[in-house]
UniProtKB/TrEMBL annotation:
Chain residues that bind heme: C432
Topology within the bilayer: Peripheral membrane protein
Organism: Araneus ventricosus
Record protein name field: Cytochrome P450 2J5
Swiss-Prot/TrEMBL cofactor(s): heme
Cellular component terms (Gene Ontology): endoplasmic reticulum membrane
Family, per entry: Belongs to the cytochrome P450 family.
GO MF annotation: an example: heme binding
UniProt keyword annotations, A-Z: Endoplasmic reticulum, Heme, Iron, Membrane, Metal-binding, Microsome, Monooxygenase, Oxidoreductase
Purpose of the protein: May be involved in the metabolism of insect hormones and in the breakdown of synthetic insecticides.
Compartment(s) where it occurs, according to its Swiss-Prot or TrEMBL record: Endoplasmic reticulum membrane; Microsome membrane
InterPro entries noted in UniProt: Cyt_P450 (IPR001128), Cyt_P450_CS (IPR017972), Cyt_P450_E_grp-I (IPR002401), Cyt_P450_sf (IPR036396), Cytochrome_P450_fam2 (IPR050182)
Gene3D superfamilies referenced in this protein's UniProt entry, alphabetically: Cytochrome P450 (1.10.630.10)
Length: 487
């Protein structure tokens, strides 16, 4: 009798387990330990998009040992990422760069650090004179170099990245790097490459335990050099924090380091120990702000300049609008973007068309999440196919075409800012915190370059769109011609 009841209970448990498995999103079976990683190809976002035909808008795969749910459709992604159960960041994606500030935090620590960091960035000059002056100083140096080339073919990649990096670093550390600190600009570029180009929600070294360390030790695929760059950039940030604490001239500069140190000093005078403020967290937040305002902007601008070579008619329309509205000396400001709707629509379409972050950084479900009749189990990792959202024919007519008019209404005079299935900075409360900074800097650089130069590929050469994969994808370098306009 006892054995019979035990058998019934066992059968019932198996049935319950089977039913629970039936509720999870469908997906392919991968290999032991590696999961579906060997089958993703060079463009995992397109692989996931093609899998939609068989498995639907929401599918599941094992990426290494991680059970991962991929969201392939806008409404599904919006529902899941707006759920409180998806607010945690997956623990391993930024592990290789140490404590990545509030991006690596969850719960109250994340809320506390993100809120302070974004408030401080806004107070320090986001959209104010200091930020604008700093940015324009760096941009003017880049423009001068382009003028000196007199239209000769030139690969702008390194100089553009250095200009952007110098701009954001000056805001964070309170000073422009000196002429004897060019090596720090090279280091910052190497750090961004190590942090973003060699990571991602489908990158094996981000997913398979011990694989990154193995590659570092045996010097495989440049991971040893990446590790060295990460450690050196960390030392650079530590030195900047130390200088602010010990150098009289730096103590009163309104920059992010002093703002954070001021908060630490304020907390030290109280009995409040229930917080995550520390110099280690400061270093992580500095690194995070730098990454958010460096590689993604660089990638976006590189794509836009290449697109302008392909679509000459669009380049002419942008130039005409900028000159008519702003004239020779006027600046395109983010808060006044409605004055140049066509230009800003080009930027928005560039983010959709290029989708330079094709797969969102991963979240981790801290509870079961119901969606579309399925259950995303607690502990699952979650990523959104942002490239898929931006190329979904249910929302975008002929998505392979570059059409700024998608973001315009009223005869092209007014911007459409809230398009469905448009998420260049992800969705929900854990979306990219640097979206406003990104739009500002992209608009500044793009508009000033277009006003002053006609951009093209060398005679007889077509624009190339070969991508270098990573968490943030980049275009492979190609020389372009910047012919100074007569204005």
């Amino acid at each position: 009798m006892y054995r019979a009841r035990s058998g019934v209970l066992c059968d019932h448990s198996v049935l319950q387990w089977y039913k629970s498995r039936q509720k999870t999103p469908p997906g392919p079976i991968g290999l032991p330990f590696l999961g579906y990683l060997p089958f993703l190809g060079k463009e995992p976002h397109k692989t996931f998009w093609n899998m939609r035909k068989k498995y639907g808008d929401i599918l599941s795969v094992y990426l290494g040992p991680n059970y991962t749910v991929v969201l392939n459709e806008y409404n599904v992604a919006k529902e899941v990422l707006s759920h409180p159960g998806s607010l945690d960041r997956a623990p391993d994606i930024f592990k290789h760069i140490g404590d990545a500030g509030f991006a690596a935090q969850n719960g109250e620590r994340w809320i506390e650090q993100r809120r302070f960091t974004m408030s401080a960035a806004k107070d320090l000059g986001l959209g104010k004179d200091y930020w604008e002056v700093t940015m324009m100083e760096e941009l003017s140096n880049l423009i001068q170099k382009l003028k000196e080339l007199k239209g000769r073919p030139f690969d702008i990649s390194e100089d553009l990245l250095s200009s952007l990096n110098a701009s954001i670093l000056s805001l964070l550390i309170g000073r422009r790097l000196g002429k004897d600190e060019v090596d720090k600009l090279h280091l910052s570029a190497e750090f961004a490459d190590a942090a973003l180009a060699k990571t991602g929600p489908s990158n094996p070294t981000s997913l398979v335990p011990g694989l990154r360390k193995f590659c570092e030790i045996f010097k495989i695929a440049g991971h040893d050099k990446a590790r060295k760059a990460i450690l050196q950039f960390s030392s650079f940030l530590k030195e900047q924090i130390k200088r602010h604490k010990t150098t009289e001239l730096l103590r009163d500069i309104p920059d992010f380091i002093n703002t954070y140190l001021g908060k630490l000093s304020e907390l030290s005078k109280t009995n409040n120990k229930d917080h995550a403020f520390s110099e280690t967290m400061l270093e992580g937040n500095l690194a995070l702000l730098f990454l958010g305002a460096s590689d993604t902007i660089y990638s976006s601008l590189g794509m836009l300049l290449r697109i302008m070579c392909k679509y000459k008619d669009i380049q002419k329309k942008v130039h005409a609008e900028l000159m008519e509205v702003l004239g020779k000396d006027g600046l395109a400001r983010y808060e006044e973007k409605d004055k140049v709707p066509y230009t800003f629509a080009v930027l928005m379409e560039g983010q959709r068309y290029g989708s330079n972050v094709p797969l969102s950084t991963t979240r981790k479900a801290n509870q079961d999440i119901p969606v579309n009749g399925y259950i995303i189990p607690k502990g699952s990792e979650i990523t959104v196919n942002l490239w898929g959202l931006h190329h979904d024919r249910a929302y975008w007519d002929e998505p392979e075409e570059f059409r700024p008019e998608r973001f315009l209404t009223d005869g092209g005079t007014r911007l459409i800012m809230n398009n469905p299935s448009y998420a260049p900075f992800s969705i929900g409360r854990r979306n990219c915190p640097g979206s406003t900074i990104a739009w500002m800097e992209i608009l500044y650089y793009f508009s000033e370059i277009i006003k002053k130069f006609e951009i093209s590929t060398p005679p007889g050469v077509e624009p190339e769109f070969e991508f270098i994969s990573g968490l943030v994808t980049r275009l492979a370098p190609q020389p372009l011609c910047f012919k100074e306009r007569n204005i």
